[in-house]
Amino acid sequence: MKIICIGRNYTEHARELNNPLPAEPVFFMKPDTSILKNNKPFFLPDFSNEIHHEVELVIKICKVGKSIAEKFAHRYYDEIGIGIDFTARDLQAKAKEKGLPWEIAKGFEGSAPLGKFLSKKSFASLQSIHFHLDINEKTVQTGTSADMIFSFDRIVSYVSQFFPLKTGDLIYTGTPAGVGPVHTGDYLKAYIEDQCLLECKIK
Ligand code: ZN
């Protein structure tokens, strides 16, 4: 099982980090040891002083496929959930400066909290899924799939040209604006519409 994450998929977020808007999806991967399930706590790593939250819609791949045409891509994922792409922003900034890969800033243990999934059928439209992240009962990020630069179908099609997709693979589809640091004692809750699907305490 692999975890693919899309970067810069929301215009306002790309702007807040002074990144150019991509012409094609930008993606990177996290190892399976980054997954944090069942609302388990996240332990801040000692190699970073700046762990940022990035709340993201996550799609779960339900069928093996490669080089999937965009018009058939919807057949390859059947559930949508919510997750957090924890990012060591200080390490990422250093890597970016030197033109080096981001893995250590993105793939550390517990860096991918994952909530409950909803059937795709439960959504009236995949083009207007609202989601948000609260920290200590205050909303810090809100997003809607309507604002994604690249749709779920485009992402599945694009990624599968390079990496065949397998059942159970996860794709984190990018974060909207409002990213920021988490601190010891923070309590995170992530929602799709008004349903809380993920909780995570920072330790
Ligand atoms: Zn992200």
Compute the number of helices.
4
Main β-sheet, in a few words? 7 strands, mixed
Assigned CATH architecture: Alpha-Beta Complex
Strand order, largest beta sheet: 2-1-11-5-6-8-3
Radius of gyration: 16 Å
H/E element order: EHEEEEEEHHEEEHEEEE
**Count of all domains:** 1
Broad CATH class: Alpha Beta
What integer is the average pLDDT? 96
Short description, anyone?
The protein has 203 residues and is an alpha+beta fold. Helices cover 15% and strands 35% of the residues.
3D structure, described in words:
This protein has one domain: Fumarylacetoacetase-like, C-terminal domain (Fumarylacetoacetate hydrolase, domain 2). Helices cover 15% and strands 35% of the residues. It has 4 helices and 14 strands. The protein has helices at 11-16, 89-98, 103-106, 152-162, and strands spanning 3-7, 26-30, 35-36, 51-53, 55-61, 77-84, 87-88, 112-119, 130-135, 138-144, 170-172, 180-181, 187-192, 195-201. The strands form 3 sheets. Strands 2-1-11-5-6-8-3 form a 7-stranded mixed sheet, covered by helices on one side. Strands 10-9-13-14 form a 4-stranded antiparallel sheet, with no helix packed on it. The relative contact order is 0.29. Bound molecules: zinc ion.
